[in-house]
Design a protein that fits this description.
Layout: H1 2-20, H2 33-44, H3 47-54, E1 64-67, H4 74-86, E2 96-97, E3 121-124, H5 125-135, E4 157-159, H6 165-170, H7 179-184, E5 191-193, H8 195-199, H9 208-220, H10 224-247, H11 251-254, E6 263-264, E7 272-273, H12 275-284, H13 313-318, H14 326-331, E8 344-345, H15 352-359, H16 367-370, E9 374-376, E10 382-386, E11 392-398, E12 403-407, H17 410-435, E13 441-445, E14 450-454, E15 463-469, E16 475-482, E17 489-491, E18 504-510, E19 519-523, H18 585-591, E20 619-620
Helix pairs in contact: 2-5, 2-17, 4-5, 5-10, 9-10, 10-17, 12-17
Length: 628
């Protein structure tokens, strides 16, 4: 009987705590700080300029873009409805239209302001990006994969044992569980999959693998409506990705500290959350975010527009080259509320540097902050723990027993905001420039229907798809060429000799393995003819893939590989490479041997997006012979 009473008392306490807890583990506020950071990241990136250039000034991030609810599965449609319901009216994340938005032809004009033809949803590219930030919060249990492990940031799961499991369950951090899940112990217990695991999750409909799929369909889908639909979904996936990345610029997320999300913010019962989030929301709102220098717009030279910090999404988290990575910058140079060093007794005879070293014993911290750290002033009843950079890492006080206790105060929070918000903005900018890269070096001879493309390291094993788009926006793939190394490729007879006046040629480079970046496209302006580039090193002649049953509208062309024999019927004779081995041709031949048209290397597996491979375009080597 006594055990039953204790269980009932514990259950009642847990229920009370659960009902008064915030029910989510948020870093920056999604409706204010996150939105401002995403807007700044977009403006600092080359996204708008690249969209305008590749579409011949027809589309930018402020152009309207429509999404068809009828094309969505039930789970995705539910996510979108919940996100639009949760989005603040001033966040810019609410789309016009949608099912039921049109009241009928006889309704007053004032009631049709949000109507979009066909019950479609419509907003700008930036609007879909912002809606993706909100999508990543519904259901709020998605926020649990915004953490990395404190001891091993590369681990697939993270855990936080600062609070007992019963307390964590009672706080209802899964934000989607029920009273039964908390009472039975089936709810959240301070552990979950890490942000790194989410980056590679092929089952999550908003994770980077889904982003790669939608980007591919946004270029290869046959109709303009379908391409716009997938582009809107890709932008929402990108917004979800920016949410995860920018959350990792918060020390609590970079240190796997979910306990910090439930600190008391006032004396009101149940008023709990992350103090850093509330201070940033109150200090900046949707307005002027801090920069590393001052509260003013940065010069373009300081932004690094178009230059990525790291070559992969994972490297943005863990670091690459000179970039230390989000986890290191936020989790190893700053403390979170529940990951501070424990209280220690210190002798007043110690100097300030030695006292700081004693406080930091066994604590994960960057060497640059640990070396030169000091308590200032010391000895004193109160002061700050200053890192090697001179920044205050934490405030300290000495109790009556001589124990030094650390905590975070407003001065420390202001320092964190001024350093970490710009970090999240810059990483967001870099991610946008990675997901939407620039078109590689290329020259076009429109009269000769010839393209000379240098894929570089980024697209050296990609596939070049030549698309013909008519006046209605319908696209058809007319040829396909596999890139065979980073050096120049010359594609001859890349499009039919005659094309309709209302049609245009679109080139698409894509990776078929789902990596990021997944695809990049460029619309050709055939009214302007340019001379092909003249690289010094010759390029080995790659044999094209055998054609399928789909034929070009113009019929067979010169240099097309005949089915079955793998030999060109009337291809141009390749130029002999120079005899000088220092020219780089020997190395190029060794690194990129000629590919047999019947081999697997020359014939990539079927496109995951479902389009039919087109017949190949002839490819010539580029030799330094002085001829175009």
């Amino acid at each position: 009987m006594r055990r039953g009473r204790r269980w009932l008392a514990a259950a009642g306490l847990a229920l009370a705590m659960g009902l008064t807890s915030p029910g989510s583990a948020r870093a920056w506020d999604p409706s204010t700080t996150h939105m401002a950071m995403v807007e700044r990241s977009m403006l600092d990136s080359a996204l708008h300029l690249r969209w305008m250039e590749r579409s011949l000034l027809q589309r930018g991030v402020f152009s309207p873009l429509r999404l068809d609810p009828a094309r969505l599965d039930a789970a995705t449609l539910r996510d979108l409805r919940l996100a639009m319901r949760a989005a603040h009216a001033a966040s810019g994340a609410q789309a016009r239209g949608g099912p039921g938005a049109c009241p009928g032809a006889s309704a007053p004009a004032s009631t049709r302001v949000h109507c979009v033809y066909g019950d479609l949803w419509e907003t700008t590219g930036l609007g879909w990006l912002q809606l993706g930030v909100i999508v990543e919060t519904v259901p709020t249990e998605r926020l649990l994969h915004h953490f990395v492990d404190r001891e091993d940031p590369t681990a697939a799961r993270w855990s936080d044992d600062d609070l007992p499991r019963s307390v964590l369950r009672s706080k209802h951090a899964d934000a989607g569980g029920t009273v039964a899940s908390r009472a039975t112990g089936a709810g959240f217990e301070g552990s979950g999959r890490s942000a790194l695991a989410w980056l590679e999750d092929g089952a999550d409909r908003w994770a980077p693998p889904a982003l790669a799929h939608h980007l591919t369909r946004a270029s290869l889908a046959p109709t303009a409506a379908e391409r716009d639909h997938h582009l809107a979904l890709a932008l929402m996936c990108t917004g979800a990705l920016l949410h995860v990345m920018q959350d990792l610029s918060v020390p609590a997320h970079a240190r796997g500290d979910v306990s910090a999300m439930f600190l008391p913010l006032s004396t009101i019962l149940g008023d709990r959350g992350l103090p850093l989030q509330e201070m940033a929301r109150d200090a900046y709102g949707r307005g002027g975010l801090p920069t590393p220098v001052a509260l003013a717009p940065r010069p373009t030279a300081e932004v690094g527009r178009g230059i990525v910090r790291a070559p992969t999404l994972r490297a943005h988290v863990l670091g690459h080259g000179d970039f230390a990575g989000l986890v290191h910058e936020a989790g190893r140079r700053f403390f979170s509320e529940s990951s501070l060093p424990p209280a220690r007794r210190l002798s007043v005879d110690l100097d300030a540097t030695t006292a700081a070293a004693r406080v930091l014993e066994g604590v994960p911290l960057d060497a640059a902050e640990r070396e030169g750290a000091r308590l200032a002033p010391w000895p004193a009843d109160r002061g700050y723990l200053q890192g090697g950079s001179g920044r205050p890492l934490a405030a300290y006080r000495v109790d009556e027993e001589g124990a030094v206790t650390l905590w975070l105060d407003r001065r420390v929070y202001r320092t964190q905001m001024q350093q970490l918000i710009p970090l999240g903005v810059d990483v967001g900018r870099s991610v946008l420039d990675l997901v939407h890269p620039a078109w590689p070096s290329m020259s076009v001879d429109a009269a000769a229907r010839r393209v000379t493309l240098t894929p570089g390291e980024l697209w050296k094993d990609a596939t070049l798809q030549v698309m013909l788009e008519d006046g209605s926006g319908a696209r058809e793939s007319i040829s396909s060429v596999a890139m065979q190394g980073p050096t120049a490729h010359r594609v001859v007879d890349a499009w039919p000799a005659t094309i309709p006046d209302d049609s245009r040629v679109v080139l698409v480079l894509l990776h078929r393995d789902g990596r990021i970046p997944a695809v990049v496209e460029q619309t050709l302006d055939l009214s302007v003819a340019t001379e092909p580039s003249q690289p010094k090193a010759a390029v080995p002649r790659p044999r094209a893939r055998p054609p399928t049953t789909r034929r070009s509208p113009a019929g067979p062309r010169r240099g097309v590989v005949a089915p079955g024999d793998g030999k060109p019927t009337d291809a141009a004779t390749p130029q002999d490479p120079p005899d000088d081995p220092s020219s780089g041709d020997a190395a190029a031949d060794a690194a990129t041997p000629p590919v047999d048209a019947d081999s697997d290397a020359a014939t990539p597996s079927g496109d995951a997006s479902g389009e039919t491979p087109a017949e190949p375009a002839p490819v010539e080597p580029v030799a330094d012979d002085g001829r175009p």
